[in-house]
Amino acid sequence: MPGHLETLLAFDRQYQRDQQQSPAFLHRRDRRYALDRGSNQAPDMGHWLAQLQALNETATVSYPPELRFWQRFASAFVSLGALLGIVTMSGLLFYDGGQQINITVILGVILLQLVLALITAIQGLAGWQPWAPLVHSLQHRLEKRQPSPALMPLFGPMMARTAQAAGLAFGLTGLVTLLGSVVLQDLAFGWSTTLETSAEAWHSIVSWIAAPWSGWLPVATPSLELVSDTRFFRLADTTPGTDSARWGAWWPFVAMAWLTWTILPRLLLLGLATLDLRRKSRRALRHHPGYPALLWRMETPAVETGSDTTDSGQLPADASTDTVPVPDTPLIVCWAGASPQGVLTETSAPPLRAGGSQSLQADRRTLADLASRRGPGDRDLLVVTRAWEPPTAELEDFLEEAAMQFPDITLTLLPLATTPTRRPADQQLAQWLRFADRAGQGIRVAATDNGEANHVQH
């Protein structure tokens, strides 16, 4: 899966689909994946979901609609932030020729943006969701669906990331507007305040603001003389004797203050919000109700012994103790290391192997080899097993896949005793007859008895 949120939503959809499957089927499927993956490797949810899609157990899923909504919402929010950046900076730089652009107002906007960025970061880290009802209502109106329960705990971090991105767009477009205005207009900056503030006090304030770049960019650090020369009062004329070029000398300071205290904090906090969202999405996956169950299925062997009922030593009530004769067929598969001794003739082709230590891919190659070996008149597939070993879920999966690939073929199980020419004990045959009866697919059970066999089909 391409991302952490996509993986979480895909896992949640798979979990909802798995509610319709039997626990035994889920156990066989996930245990088989764990065995093929290797016991020393931690489960990878992205790889597990991709494997299910590769096996056609799940339909190919398009981009999650919940994330499509958030993409559109975030794009609209960022676009609005960019537009507000242009409008705000244009308003701050408005100059009618009769009054200077007040640096105090620009610094106030920078401080406001810094405070909003910090509040947004705290809201995201704490998981507060003050805007959740409004966004959920918008999603229900536009998407005609309720928000995914899997995303509900992540709404706070997702909203924080979106807001930080919008704030970053605000800062960038504001800076571009400032630089464009510097090139295209003759801007006159100054500072003014109603408070009784001396030039020395104001110079100490702007020097503190310029501290991050004062050592390597002195041109963007206002001097005391510049501060003294560019103070103005709203109803007074421009100070006599002040050089006109002095009023425009503030622009490097304004640009660096905007870059340092508006854009950079938003950029850093956007990265922090992204990391926090990734961390919380991984935690949401671990806390998902389907995650512990999946890990249990992967770590716990799926073995059906057939001996957990009171009639484990008996045949099914509707079954006979008789079995079918061993079919004469070149299509023979030895399961989990079973020996075909006593079954093959001199003209028989070498048997194919499946199960046991073989991987799922190797079992599929065996079925492909059967397809290439099969002749026009071959209608039987013989699977040789050990009678004293209980049938496993992996064998049932192999037979199901064989039945799907060869719908016109008859599947026959041949449980062999330690002496291949002797008939296995009735208790051993009982588990195989129950297994064939439960698995369906028209599976038959054959048994040797000194070269003779009886007939009954299951």
TrEMBL record:
Disordered: region residues: 302-322
Domain of life according to the entry: Bacteria
Keyword Transmembrane helix on entry: yes
Pfam families listed in its UniProt record: DUF2868
Keywords: Membrane, Transmembrane, Transmembrane helix
Bilayer-crossing regions: 73-95, 101-122, 165-184, 249-273
Coiled coil: none
Protein name per its UniProtKB record: DUF2868 domain-containing protein
Source species: Marinobacter zhanjiangensis
